[in-house]
Design goal:
By secondary structure, the protein is α/β, with parallel strands linked by helices. It has eleven helices and ten strands. The strands form two sheets. It has an eight-stranded parallel barrel with strand order 1-2-3-4-6-8-9-10, surrounded by six helices. Strands 5-7 form a two-stranded antiparallel sheet.
Amino acid sequence: MSDYNYPSFGAGLWHFANYIDRYAVDGYGPALSTLDQIKLAAEVEDLAWVDIPYPFTPGVSVSDVKQALQEAGLKAIGVTPEIYLRKFSRGAFTHPDAAVRAEALALMNEAAGVVRELGASYVKVWPGQDGWDYPFQVDHKNLWKLAVDGMRELAGANPDVKFAIEYKPRVKMTWDSAAKSLLGIKEIGLDNVGILLDFGHALFAGESPAGAAQLIIDRGRLFGMDVNDNLRGWDDDLVVGTVHMTEIFEFFYVLKRNNWNGVWQLDQFPFREDHVEAANLSIRFLKHIYRALDKLDIDALQAAQLEQNPLKAQRIIQNALLSSIEE
């Protein structure tokens, strides 16, 4: 295989956990502690970074996590406070009870402290229960104010920490698109608030992931990104490249054109698959993408794009993408 200076690869630690759903209510495997998940992540080839959910599993401390990461040869890229569990089932920033909103903010402030202790890059904010399901359920003006004011309070209290909002169209989640998230961040008015762009969320939202990336980059707000895949009807979090190979190539092309050099991170839920094998296959594919970008005739592609000629463009990207497979 040719020698390449590949980017750093990462994964959400949840990739290595076991979960239940409404079908397998007994779970798809035994429960694993935060430390068990870190050990499993260490088995993945070329994995360097993990995004860690907080709070950790019972009995696990920050010092335990620091030691486990060091022994595994991994680093923390982010900390994700679990502001979407049962306690926050009616919202975190937007919960109708001010006391619950205060609990959510306290948890996120704790997560900011963990970011400092672990030397991570950001707190990832995914307020997955904030929003609405039915017409007339909420006062939209009030809901948006709670979301924006809450983020402003959180980020303002921690000016040394970055906060990356991960938007997603969960039924009607408050932060549900790139454009709406950027509008909210503009209202917040603080430099330490940005976006973590999830490729699959952009697909599910009906966006062009590449177009969303460009929009966010142009405003200096792309703090991180996750990749995966889905069938566009739900956030399936499948292995990256298994469905939308051309669109993921365009996504990384936009990142390269803009000299974005962050971690290439997986956000996947291999419920039924082997966790380590799924991560290894994903990184294998991402390496193919990286090599294809190196082979891509960018001058010819830009010329085709100036003409807005889709067939010329497809021929050029196919020549690069389909010739990059190496073992």
